[in-house]
Every structure is written in C-alpha cells, then in structure tokens.
Amino acid sequence: MSSLTIRNVDEATKQRLRIRAARHGVSMEEEVRRILKEALRPAEAPSGLGQRLRDRFAEVTAEEFVVPKRHTPRTPLQWDESA
Length: 83
Hints:
- By secondary structure, the chain is mainly α.
- The mean pLDDT is 89.
- The protein contains three helices and no strands.
- The longest helix is centred in the N-terminal third of the chain and has 14 residues, at 11-24.
- The chain has a domain at 1-43.
C-alpha cells in the first residue's frame, strides 16, 4: 500500500473530518480513504438510447401495445423511369 501525507489542513476541516469519521465509526485515516475512493471513482457510462427505451417500456405487454389500423392504404412511390 502507498502512503500519502497531506499538510496544511486547517483545523475546521480536520474537525469536520474527525466528526464525520466518528459518525461512520471509522478512523480519520479510513474516512479519508473512503472519501478519496468515492471522489475518484470512474464515472459510469451513460446508458444508450436503446437501453433507456427498453427500461422505460419494460412493463408494457403486447396486449397493452395496440397499433391502430390505418384508414387509407398508402400509395406506393412512383419512380420516374426517365431520370
């Protein structure tokens, strides 16, 4: 394990750290390790659009998802042969 020394920590910060560590039932040193670990944790990649849509509609069943019938049939595209 590596060692790290932090100098010139003001008393108010040290006191807040001492209180926070006591609240969590750990030493000040352990509390600093936890704070650093949390602060430097790699950011999670945001989920993609597909995953977000899947999560959003996960509870929807086939019976609930009704596609309405079209009233008029679509006219197929006519491609101009001269172009």
